[in-house]
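Researcher: Next entry in the queue.
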Amino acid sequence: MRLFKNFDDIFLAYSCEDTIRDHDEVSLLHNITYHDAMARRIGTEGFETAIRRSVHPALLTRFEHRLPLWERVVTAQHKGLLRLNGANQFFGFRVGQTLAQHYIESSEFLDATRSPTIAAFFANYAAPEVVRQQHGLHHDASTEIGIIYRFFAPAANDTPLQFDYYSAPGYIDAVAVAETLVTSRPDSQTTWSPDDFIFLYKMTGGHRDWKLLALPSGSIPDTRIGRQEAAFLVPDEVHDESRDPHTGHQHVRYQAIEDLSARDGVNLFYFLRRRTGLGDARVSESYLWPSDEQPEQMFTGLFHNMVDAEDIIRSRKIILGRVFEPDHWYPARHDLIREKAPNLTGRGIAT
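Model: Structure for this entry, 351 residues:
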């Protein structure tokens, strides 16, 4: 595990490189990552087009061969900022982390599921190439073995109603967390108003009126969280924390992190990966990532509203000066909200 003390650490973690060879490059990438107008341009024009239109031609010539790596670093950090300063801020750690994992693909947890069949679907795919590079893995389509880990899971209703980074249980039922947004009122009386929720949160200094995010009864099974029977595993860790007395920035030094596979009662199942033969034709990308169901569109819409939070607040003609302090900034990138299934094509192992 790498500790992110500064952008150098972020660059090393997401670039999969061992050392920084050019500090000018890292400085330039830092400026690109945290520039609000640049983030908006990337979100609307695409990364390469935005870079080519914004970076000085001499620098572009110098670093053009590095653009794929740049995109990987900037995208990963922007997702983290959307989660930390966006989802966690507006919706709290419990709901924010749960939704961010599925709609921004960023969290501090490890994905799990209550369904063996769905676990097999995900385990049937090889790790992305960037992950292979980072961990020194080699791709061998003829012999690659998949593994399914079976953990003990408490009942769904045992998921705490409140927790943060420090008090999170070792297992979290994501479906149970999402179900807390469902109201028992008749559908005609439900209210789904993300704009009002976000506006009220900022105007009151942090009050969350969950009635403004009330889902109709029976909504969650038609979302990707419900269909994936989603859950999270949360490893224990030991670390020291301190704060810089001058800047207030938090510093964390990790000492140990739990090996989840060593938990009591964990079983491992090995299999040879293949593209077909899971035994349940229902389990497909289109099923696990529904795009046409109304509850799913409500969740993706919620994140689009979150991205537009500053515009929402300013549109109501409230003069606040700076809407978000620099430490709470996140990029206005609608393109990072996952509305469809990820591209798994070509990652399956045919045997």
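Model: The CA atoms of residues 43 and 333 lie 5 Å apart.
Researcher: Noted, moving on.
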